[in-house]
Amino acid sequence: MNTTILALDLGTNTGWALHHMDGSILSGTQCFKPQRFEGGGMRFLRFKHWLNELLSASHYINAVYFEEVRRHAGVDAAHAYGGFMGHLTAWCEHQNIPYQGVPVGTIKKHATGKGNAGKDEVIAAARSRGHAPKDDNEADALALLHWAIETQEV
Known about the structure:
This protein is an alpha/beta fold.
């Protein structure tokens, strides 16, 4: 595959996985928790700055995939997700990078064989592919990245 793909599990602790043109994969979790004396929009400015850093370090991103969540346990999580998704899609439009949301069940089914797999099962699936995710956010991003690599023509 001759492309650079970014996969994101959006949230306060955003999981990310980046497939480079040379086939290498980097992944991690980036925290965007609001700081004590920050205004409500600062987390999104830091998110945009982080996206710009990823793009600069990668030189080019061919496509962005993000976990498309339809339900959240709480209002705060739903608001945060909506903010991250809005900023991500606007950033992709500005950078002329195609983007696509992928339903959670689709990602889990591809990674584990079960659309309703739990966090531990997704982490185990990432480990079985040779990754060492430090949490479920990173594991979700890795699962999404492998879905994109194996099912999409980027």
